[in-house]
Structure formats: C-alpha cells, structure tokens
Amino acid sequence: MWRSQLKYIALWFFLAGVALIVFIQFISGENVNRLINANDRLLNEVKIQNDLRRLESAILTLESDMRSLLITDKPEYNRLVSDKIRIIERQLSTIQSSLEDSTVNKDLLELDSLIHRKLNFNKNVLALIQRRQQDAALSQINSGRGRVLRDSIQKNIAHIDSLRQSRLYGIISSIERNGHRARTLGVILAVLACISCILAFLYIVNRGRQQQRMIDMLNESERRIKEVAKIKEQFLANMSHEIRTPMNAILGFTNVLKKTQLNSQQLQYVEYIYSSGENLLTLVNDILDLSKIEAGMMNIVEAPFSLHGLVNSVEIMFREKARQKGLDFRIDVDPSVPDTLSGDSVRLNQVLINLLSNAVKFTDKGFVELRVTSGPVRHNKQSDDDIELQFSVRDSGVGIASQKLNSIFGRFQQAEAETTRRFGGTGLGLSIVKQLVDLQNGYIDVESEVGKGSSFIIHLPFRILHDYSVSHAVEAQDSEMAVKGRVLIAEDNAMNQQLIRHLMRQWNIDYRLVNNGQEALEALQREEFSLVLMDIQMPEMDGYTATLSIRNELDLDIPIIAMTAHAMSGEKEKCLSYGMTDYMSKPVKEKELYKIIQTYTHNKKPEENNGVQKIVDLGYLRELSMGDEEFENTIIKQFIVQIPEELQALKQAIRENNRIQIKSVAHGMKSSVSYMGLKDLLYPYLHRMETEATSNEPQPHFEQDFQSLEKYCLQAVEEAREMMSNIYG
Amino acid sequence: MAAFKQPLWALTMTKKFTIFFLLCLALLIVSEYFLLYEIYSERRPELILASSIGLFISLIAFFISFRKYSEIAK
Fold first, then answer.
1. Is the Cβ pair A11, B63 closer than 8 Å?
2. Whole-model pTM?
3. Stretch A107-119: mean pLDDT
4. In sequence order, what are the beta bridge partners of A394?
5. What is the three-class DSSP state of A320?
6. What is the pLDDT of residue A477?
7. Which of A120-129, A205-214, A670-679 has the lowest mean pLDDT?
8. Nearest CA of chain A to the CA of B8: how many Å?
9. SS3 state of residue A633
10. Cis omega (within 30 of 0) for bond into A587
11. Inter-residue contact B39 to B52 (CB < 8 Å)
12. Which of B35, B36, B38, B69 is the best substitution to test chain A (most A C-beta atoms within 10 A)?
C-alpha cells in the first residue's frame, strides 16, 4: 500500500519538478532578455550624451570660427564655418530622432528653436562677410545676440543632459536588478539540478541494492533447494539402503525356505511373505526411478534389441497372471514391424510391464491386449531407418473417468480413492511411464471409459537395424557354467552372511566370508581368491577404501563385484571409479548372483551331453513359477509333448507351402521355447519364418531354418526328458 | 526458457507507454511555456485558457496512463 502511494507521490514530484524547471527557465530567459534590452538602452543613452557634447562643442567652436573668418578673411574659414553649420544641423536631427519618444520633448523643441536661431544668426553674419560688409558683420557679432543664444543653448543642453543622466542611472539599476535575479534563478536551477541528480543517484543505488538483495535471496534459495535436494537424495539413498539390506535377507531366506519341505499352508504363507517383499521392493525401485528421473540421471541407452523377443518375454511374464484371473490375454505384433531395432529396450520393457501389470490388475473379466504397430510417418524423421512404433495396451477393466484422465500421470495419483483400497498400489507407475516415454522422445495417449476399459497408446521412435544379427545363441549356453576357484565375500550384516553361506553351499562354491574391508585385505594377503564380492557400507573399512587398497597397495587385479544396498543414481559409476569390476544391487537374486560369479571366474563346467552343450535353461521358468515345482514340471511335460507335434505341423506346412500355417505354428512355438530358456537361440529362426510367411517372400529360408530349429528342439526335448527322468527316477 | 527476442522497432507495450509518456511530457512543457509567455507578455485570454487546458490535460493523461502501466506491469 505504502509502496503504491510512494510511486504516485514520486510521479507528482516528477511532474511538479518538470513544471518548476520550465517556470524557472522561462523567468531566467525573461531576465536575460531584459538585460539585453537594458544594455541597448544604456548604449543609446551614452550615444545621446556624446551627441549632445559634440553639439555643444560645435556651437562653441562655431563662434570662434566666425571671428577668425572675420579677422583673416581666408576662404578656408568660410568653408569651415559652412561645414560646421551643416554638422550642427545633422547632429541636431540625430539627437531629435534618438529622443523622439522621450520625456524631454519640450526641452528638445526649445533646443531646436535656439539652435536654429543661432544658426540663422551665424548664416546672416556669414552672408555679410561674403558680401564684404565687414563692419556690418562685426557690429552683428558685437551685438551679443550670438553669445546670448550660445549660452541659452548650453543651458538647454545641460538640462537635457541632466534629465538623461537620471534615466541612465535608472537603466543601470535595472540592469543590476535583472542581473541579480538571473544569478539567483541560475543558482536555484543549479540547486534543483543537483537535487534531481542526487535523487536519481539515490534511486538508482536503491534499485541496484534491491536487485542485489533479490539476487542474493535467489542465490540463497537456490542453494537451499540444492541442499534440500541433496538431503532428499541422501535420505532416499539411506532409506533405500536400509530397506534393501533386510529385504535381501527376507527375500533370500524366503526363497531358501520355499525349497524346503513345507505343507501347503506353510508354502502359501511363504508365498505371501515373498510377494509382499517383492511389492515393497517394487515400491522402493519406483521411488528410486522417480528420483533418478527428477535428478536427470536416468539415461536412455540406445542398443540393438529384438522387439519380438522383448514382446515375447513380456507375454510370458503376464500370460500366466492373466490366465489365473481368467482373462483373455492377447499379443499382436504387426508383421510389418521390423524385429531388430536400436533403442532402450530396458526402459521400453519397464514401460510395457508397468502398463500391462496395471491392465491385468484393474481387469476382473474380459481381456488384456498388447498391440504393436508402425506409427504414422514422422515429419521430422531424419532417415528412412527411423520408425515410430505404437504400443497399445487395451483392457476391459474398471476404466477411468474422463475428468481424472489428466491427473493419472501425476505422482501418487490414482483415478479414484477406492482404487487404492480395492487394488492397492501407490500411483507411481503411470508417472514413471510418462516420464520414461518423455525421456525417449515419445508421447502417450490414453482413452478410457468407466466400466468399459482403458487404452494406453505409446508412440516411441526407434531406428531400424538391417545388418545386425540378434542371434546370441551362445549366451543361452552360459547358464550351466560352473565356478572354480575361491570367492571372498566381505559382508557385515549377519543375516546376509547367513544367506550367502547358504547359497555358496548350495552352489558348491568354495568361499570365505569376512566382516569388513580390513579383514578382506588381510584375507587377500594370506590366501588366493578368484573373485571378491564386496559390500560397500561396512564397519572399520568400507568397500570403497578396501577396493582402493586392493588395487593400489596389494596391486591385485582380481575381479571385485560391488554388492550393495545403495541403489541410487550414480552409485554404479562411483563403484567402478574406485576400481571395482562390476556392480549388483541388493536384494540380490540368486540367478543373477550366480551368473555374475560364473562370468568373473571364467571357468566353464565340463558338463556336456555326449559332447554337446546343454541348451535348456530353466532359470526363467523358475523365476516365473516362484518355486512352484508342480507348475515347472507341468510346463516341461507339456514342452516334451508339444514341441514334436509343432515340429511335425511345421514340417507339413513347409512341404505344402502353407504360409498361413507356417506363420501360425512359428508364432505359437515362440511361447513354448521361451519357457525353456531357448528364446535367444531359436527366436531368429522362428521370427524369420514368420516374417517370410507373412510377406510372401519368393525365396524363403523355411528349409534351412526348420533344420536348425528341429536340431535344437529335439536336443531340448531330450534334455527335458532327462530332467523329468531325474526328478521321477 | 529462452526469452523471445523482439526486433528493435517492434512496438511492445512498454515502448508504446514510453512514447505516450514522452508526448505527455512534451505537451506539459509546451503548454506551460505558452501559458507563462502569455502571462508575462501578451496576456491574451484565449491563449491563456488554451495553454491552461493543455497543461491540465497533459497532467491528467500522464497520471492515468502511469496508473494503467503500473497495473499491466504488475
């Protein structure tokens, strides 16, 4: 309020100041004009006085000149007198014109009369002289009339002069007055100018100070924001660590417990513990993901991947869940969509899993569908290899009210409060999906109707890879490698130590467990190990310091794997910067841990099947079954029966060149082989068959692909039979 | 957000107001000058009245436009 009033007061001051300056300037100008006028008048008065003096002098000398002429009778005196008479006449007219409108008119008229009378007298005398009447002329001069006239003229001139003198004093005092006034106004103007300058200076300084204060406040608030963000990040990191550490033990021991002899109720309780632990872990991971995205540390890594492989893994993940809920689960990948693409498959997988798990969760009956098609042609695409794919996840679930559609991508937002009560969840999933899609330069649309279902459509750009082979058949064979050498494990948490002990015994791995980094260093000095699993946060000496000492003091290049509950962004990079070889976050998954130990111990298990390496990998099936051995056995049995039938059907279709049948059987086989860990090995063949069958390829590779497929499938069936015979004796 | 850069000659709201303020100021100075001149010299009533009205209008216009500008600039 005061600031606003101050603004208007300042405005009025400004306007009044401008008016005052104009006023003073005007008065000052007027004074200068008066000074100039007074000066002109002063000069005029001086000139008049000079003229009067000259006139008086001429009158006086005229008399003597006349006498000289009379005495000498020289012609030059005659001329001199005539000239002087003319001069006097001229000076009189000049004085008259100068004093035309003055107050001395009466005196001037009298002077005029006297001078004319005097001149006439002198002219008469001059005429007598010129006529050679010297005596008459002399008697005229001696008559004294000329002297009387001269004296009268002198008196008159003196009177006029005195009058002009007083006028002159008046002019001089007016000049003095105007000069004083002009000087005073000049001083006032100067003072005003100084005050204006000072006020302007103070205003500018004040504004500058205000701005500086605001800048300081902004800097301070930015510093506080950064500090708060750092504290928040630290808090999240600590919480994540503190939650993950016990979660490692909970999930690990639950997994171990599941493999023990339990009755069905106990097994169910264990399942509850495991799934609750997994849910808690998902929540922690979601919060970490959001934190990473907000901190700008979620990087999109472009790498080649098989789209069909990714979609199939997603299908396998959700088909069973959908089946359990009695839902029709459909996957449809448009045949025109290329298989080998460059993009971030991890994030795409995360997005699809989030959307599909929502779809399955919120649908009680009906269907859940994932469709992959090529999107509309992008106008800003940079090359022909750029493609936009459209992933549509549709369901016939509870749906979302139209007024809630805008808010569902917000954090901790669910369409209805009842949703949380009925279905659970935190409302973070869609927020993460939206941000991940944005990070990949894509966008997401949603259509939904309450009670009828929802449709989430994601548009994501990818690059098509033509010459890249996704055949990583060898990778699948690594799963049965054995571990040789001794593993050193540095872990301080007693429960995690217990879990590690159990796992190492289960895998028959020779190990040594120590409580901290210092003990790890001592162990490495005394014994030889082929791998170190290093926890980070430990008493006495943490994992970072221990690693630095191993690398610098002991000078060992032994692989060191960070095994930590710190899962915040940048943690992996930090571990690697300290000289660690790899990183895995807690809670560790058995398979993941085993695989990483295998990878870094470099030893392959010489377990071969008649010289042929085993290709079946039940890791994924086990992960899917969550320890349900009955489910695993059913799938394996089904595989043993189904694969030969499908091979037969495929062979028949190839013989008859029935491309519809080839496409159908090849597509169906994808699911079957995925359960047995053959995805990476057999997908390239199945996908090529499917694509060539759809596109009516004139020279298909059906025969070659079938031969390879048959060879691997029969081997896999054989291995599956062996497994079953081992189980059932 | 990168600021959108206007060309120098583009009449933004601030520039429009600045021009208007300067015009008001010029009117104020001229009308006051004529008023003083008439008061000191010729004293013609019609010119005294006209210059007084000009002076008054310039002050009011300046005040109103300043208030409007302050509201826009908030």
1. yes
2. 0.44
3. 87
4. A369, A455
5. helix
6. 41
7. A670-679
8. 25
9. helix
10. yes
11. no
12. B36
